[in-house]
Amino acid sequence: NRARLVANRNLFAGTRYKGCAREGMSLLQGIVLCGHCGRHMNVRYERNGCVQYSCRSQRTRRPCQDVQGRHVEPLVEQVMLEALSREGLELAVGALEKLGERARELDRQWGNRIEAAHYEAERAARRYHRVEPENRLVARTLEREWNTRLEELERLEEEYAEVKRRPPFDLTAAQREKILELAQDLPRLWHAETTRQSQRKEVLRLLIEDVTVTNMEEPWSVAVAIQWRTGTLSQHQAKRPLPHPQTTAAEVVARIEALYQTRTDAQIAELLNAEGYRSGYGKAFTAERVAHVRNRRGWRKYNTDLKEPAPSVH
Hints:
- There is one protein chain.
- By secondary structure, the chain is of the alpha+beta class.
- 49% of the residues lie in helices and 14% in strands.
- The protein is built from nine helices and seven strands.
- Strand 6 and strand 7 form a beta hairpin.
- Helix 3 runs antiparallel to helix 5.
- The longest helix is centred in the middle third of the chain and has 45 residues.
- It is elongated and about 125 Å long.
């Protein structure tokens, strides 16, 4: 309980504490690690409501990296729910049953070792009691051997008692069925409107230890490494959209450059649409969108005779 209280402390980023699961929209709050420096990343909420994970140097406060939550959180959520599918849970139940069989086999081995130690201790005791009292040197040697066998027996019994304190891996038929029912219930409860964000975080933390994220320039994506509570590490890649200056295709930019001195923006937009070109967001071109491309590249119209047609009044 004391360890849980300490771990629930909500401190600044960069500490080893995850903090308790709070009601904020950040799904990975407290468990996101920076792929560059390994520190815990801080959570920032932008004006538009988006979640951003930020890492800052503790000494210089310079940015290490910023990762948008909308690029990473859907991927982690999908991977977690896929891990809790019926097939995944059946594999988990099968693994637990294998562990149960292994535990029973180890128990038999412990029984054999303790039985052998009992036999050796009794054998040493019989040898000691058969020796003549006059043979003091032999008696002392046999007594030391007897004590050694008794100490070995006591050590094995203590180790076996420690092993028996661990919880068993045996599953009843009812427990197995309840585990498999989670495959249908959990996705429905996860997306339910009545489920609080803090509850989703608690479920996530039961399965995932931490998530390490790294912005990648080539390809333009986020590398996501999920450390599961079982000790397994899975590698994933989350896509992120290209930055705005690169959304317009180079072919379209070259076409506008060839036309802007001899045609109006409205004429260029009409021609681009007729040729099947679309903007970086997949929309049809308008005079405003053409002008935006021109202005970002400093292409000004110096032909005073070339004027945009006045908008029609309806």
